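Q: Convert this sequence to structure tokens.
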Amino acid sequence: MTLIIGIAWRDGVVVASDSAATDTTSGIGQPIKKISEIAGTNILWGASGDHGLVQKVRAALTEFRKPPASLRSCSQILSTLIGPVLAESAKYHVPYPAPGFENPPVFTGLFAGADAKAGPWILEVEKDNRSTCYGEQMGCFAAVGSGKLLAQAVFRPHLFTPLPERDEEWAKVIAHKVVEDAVELSSARGLGLPVQMWIIRKGKKPRALKSDDLRVLGDSCEILRAEQRDALGKVASRQAGTQQEPEIPRPQER
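A:
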């Protein structure tokens, strides 16, 4: 099970994920690295789905040897590289009468980049090789994996925060909170901590956040949750203060 999210901010994208991988047969999970760079480019990616198929896609992406000229060309290159891998996987699949093996393996990938012309971008490549760009009309946010719905629900209050108002620290704190909250809510979905996070910004090489950085972000998330509880308490008190006591009818004088 997996959760990978991308949140764009004005100069780049934060890509974050959980850390758990679950074996479909035994149900046993172990931590794995879920976010990678495409060598020779300024692109980060992660994927959910069958681990073997993800490995084959990773091998195919080694042919992606130079930065794309535009977001459109990037989408075309990804489609050209990934499509044959998905088609071959479906063609040679041998159905087996057991849960998880009766259907062909699936793959959904999340790709993110930032360049001077296109700015920050997030692209999702689905299991049928179609791609979707998550720009400002879609909240500059995307999630893939079994925790997708939970992540969408947690991020909902921030979905249409304008891109110019988002800075790197904002994006990192929200990304950490989205993944952490989704993991806490998903006991049956096989997600697990710690949070993994990478930063990509225009003109700079992508970098992974270290454990100390992530620990600070975790503390910031706790402060944010406390402030949200405090704000809710103030709103509730103000609302209660505006409510008027119902007027009790008085007996009419004769």
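The domain at 3-209 is CATH 3.60.20.10 (Glutamine Phosphoribosylpyrophosphate, subunit 1, domain 1).
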